[in-house]
Amino acid sequence: MPVKPIYGVGLDAGSRRTRMVICALENGRMRLLGCGAVPSAGWLKGRIADPGAVADSIRAALREAEAAAGVSAEAAVVGVGGPTVRGANARGVIELNHVRAIDQRDVNRVVDRATHVVLQEDRMVLQAFPQDFVVDDHPGHRDPRKMLASRLEINVHLVTASVQEHTTLVGAVNEAHLLVEETVFEALASCYACVLPEDRREGIAVVDIGAQSTELVVYYGDAMYLASAIRVCGDHFTRDLAQALCITYEDAELLKIEFGGAATDASQENVVVEIPTPDHRARQAPRRFLNQVLEARAVELFKHVRNDLARVGMDRCLMGGVFLAGGGARLPDLCDVAERELQCQARYGIAIGIRDWPEDMEDPEWSAAAGLAMYSAKLKAQVERQQEAAGWLGKILK
User: Are residues 201 and 156 both part of a single domain?
Assistant: First the structure.
């Protein structure tokens, strides 16, 4: 009997581009089958303003990805981001009544206790990430099962989101005739795609810079220490140029892509660029001035990142470095500014570990979609293993 393939489908419904990746899990290895990328519509400042337009973009990306993959996608793991996503620490405690071995049910109970917290109105828990277990007042345990104790505690980091925004996004995906397997924080998905587990041991951060939102996740070892949204995003760079040069947003975006850079030192003083004008008259500006405008905003971005790192005691502690993902990370010399401001190594977050991944997609803007597809395949593989175990158990108990 042929084995049914496991497909991992990831949907990154970004505010500038909507991307979908379809992969197959073969012998424990991901292989790219097809992808789709279309312009997004219906977004305003990182929030959904027109669900119908968002659904149309998702539908177009779905058709493109299915045509390239040659398979039909029925469900996907969907990325969630934007200014409404926040992280917070929580703690759960259970009493075991007497000293005994901790089992999986105890772990499930204490995790459930930690995630059932009182949230503000219109807030929901998107994901929960255990940091460590405290066994009879002894902290620092990653797996407390089979340990003897009378009291079990857990420290978790909760990623919360707006209920309204989450519901609107899921509704738009469903309107595009696609089921939602799970929703995942976009920066976490980028981390899942571009950072190996062994690289997280000494502390890493992933900064996912989108057009209308920027997200941050920080890991130390296997524990997530921080998930947050940064106020500076890709649109700020473009709007700064538009204001400084008195041009339209569209013209500023073109100048940023073609001539922009985040480091002033990298541009020569005698180089000028032609500035578009409505009456098509010749107008020029020093390229160094363009880069000064962009560098100022880049410095502000990483100062916000550094402040968030300081809140969790990880300022200048990222021995594994910082990874820049998202379309906004493509700005030249942005890694240099990140290294200078954060005092650590910086590199682009490129998806790794997927066979047949083309060179033109070795780009930080594809990291989130790739990570979401990986997450989708992992979920389906876990479900399949559970079903197989239940099937064997049923045969034994007959």
Answer: no
